[in-house]
Design goal:
- The complex is a heterodimer of chains A (about 120) and B (about 500).
- Chain A is mainly alpha-helical and about 120 residues long.
- Chain A is elongated.
- Chain A has one domain (about 5-55, about 65-120): Helix Hairpins, CATH 1.10.287.
- In chain A, helix 1 runs antiparallel to helix 2 (about 25-45) and helix 2 (about 25-45) packs antiparallel against helix 3 (about 70-100).
- The longest helix of chain A is centred in the C-terminal third of the chain and has 32 residues, at about 70-100.
- Chain A contains three helices and no strands.
- Chain A is about 60% helix and about 0% strand.
- Chain B has about 500 residues and is mainly α.
- Chain B has helices at about 1-20, 25-55, 75-100, 105, 110-125, 130-150, 155-185, 190-200, 205-220, 230-235, 240-265, 270-295, 300-320, 320-355, 365, 370-385, 390-405, 405-435, 445-470, 475-490, 490-500, and strands spanning about 60, 70-75.
- In chain B, strands 1-2 form a two-stranded antiparallel sheet.
- In chain B, helix 3 runs parallel beside helix 14 (about 320-355), helix 3 packs antiparallel against helix 19 and helix 11 packs parallel to helix 13.
- The chains are: A mainly alpha (about 120), B mainly alpha (about 500).
- The interface between A and B is large, with 36 and 44 residues.
Chain lengths: ~120, ~500
Amino acid sequence: MNLIIPVLIGAFFGVGLYLILHRHFFKLILGLILFGLATNMFIFVIVDLSRGSTAIIKRENEVAVEPFADPVPQALLLTAIVIGFAIQAFAIVLIKRVFQAIGTNDLDDLDKTDRIDQYYK
Amino acid sequence: MIQLLLVLPLLVPLYGAILCLFCWRKLQVQMAIGVVTQLGLLTSSIFLLQVVNKQGIVTTQVGNWPAPFGITLVADLFSCLMLVVSAVVGVSVFLFSLRGLDVKRMDFGYYPLLLLLQLGVSGVCLTGDIFNLFVWFEVLLICCFVLIALGGKKNQLEGAIKYVTINFLASGFLLTGTGIVYGLLGSLNLAELALLVRSAEAHPSLVTLAAMFFLVALGIKAAIFPLFFWLPASYHTPPIPISAFIAGLITKVGVYALVRLFTLVFVLELELMLPILTYVAGFTMVIGVLGAASQVDFRRILAFHIISQIGYMIMGLALYTPLALAGCIYFVVHNILVKTNLFLISGVVAHRHRTFALRKLGGIYLKQPTLALLFIISAFSLAGIPPLSGFWGKFMLAKAGFETGSYGIVATSLGVSLLTIFSMTKIWNEVFWKKKPETTEDEIETKVEKYENRLLHLPVVFLVLFILVLGLGAESFIQFTLKAADQLLNTDIYINAVLKDVK
């Protein structure tokens, strides 16, 4: 288990980046989602979230009793997931609008804003 | 009372934006709210700057949770300066958008979005928490995304998709870096991190890994050398008020975050980082200015110049002496004002002539001599002609470079200045000096439009005043930036100010 998840995260990062570099719009969306997922899971592993223990202090105790989970990374993850979700949702709508407006499915066709020759026409 | 003053730059735009959302269909009311909020933001930032100047660093703990556990807001001189400058830019862009933006875009929530964007900028400048920094960057970016795509023109959408993708990646790197920092050091508070990094238990090599993540992430946002390609592809696509605000301010917020982190937290990696940053600075300057030389569109020339100017700021960070950092701060302030102003001027020109292409423009010197004068002040200031503001920034950086013996970067920066003059002269010759090409149709000029065009001069004059003050009153302002740089380098002041309750 301890070995599987880091390898999995590495795979997610790799696949995510590969898909983002792909020319197809739909793969761009998939890539963004996978990349967001990979960053979230990376935090999951690096701050060592343990199973079975909670961050809640029982009523009879003054302080938390070992083993307890660190609540900060949980808060970080929740925030990061929400933000990532919002941006992904926006990106999906944007990509759909681009597809409707420009009528192409290929990122290579999106070179109009970079071309100089259009100003000589 | 001071605590309240510290939260005001966040609360004012937030409440302004919420009020605007309630008046979705009433543009007049939104404009009125906008006026009040912009002025409120400006006055509260100026007050905060005065207080910080008098009393030193001001901090507050949100929700009264003590320092390393809760979220801290910190205002030192550099962050206050950023707040004031962004408020000034906010006022001028707001003024410009009253006449210079189409009603359709305003109907779709331009004013609340602008205010939320300003909220994000204030947040980045005030936060004392590394995860909070990430969150504020996201607030700022999502507003940028929507503003760039607002209106849904073809090339806007095209620019937006590039901007969104690269910034999503950058945010991912920022988050990964934050995760590494927390995993290594077990804290998110910048002041406590600064302490922990200097203690014996820190693993220097692993902290370097985190530092690299932050360098790449913030480097993308600040558009430094190998990571800038999204900027000239997207910044010229939205309408002028939006691109002026974003182009003037947002990349500099990235520079601000870089300076903050690399003077406070990642100080042990400097032996590795500073040479990298020096090369990055040199290449950023040169590539930016060469890119600008090949362009034939008013806004795209300016967009490439943003990149080249970012190089100077990074140079200040890379030299890492008090004078160099002061130069960096001076340059950030100067550049935000000048760059926004140049974008606004291109907007005034395009409002009358309906185009940004240099080939189709011309003869403005005869028709609008005031505008020509305003442009020449800003352009000379950007290129660094004394006694205008750009000169003093470059002078401080060059002097700091000579003092540390880094002649290569100084020579590069001076060479790039010459090329900057070249591009500015190109705009001057093409837009203002040469005869208006006969092939193009005449611009439509009704009485109302002439009146509107005159109104559009107002924000430009407003910014030029600041630029002149910055240049002519350089002595006192340089002293001020030196003080701010001193605060940045003496990290103990910052740490003690934040963690005073703990000790």
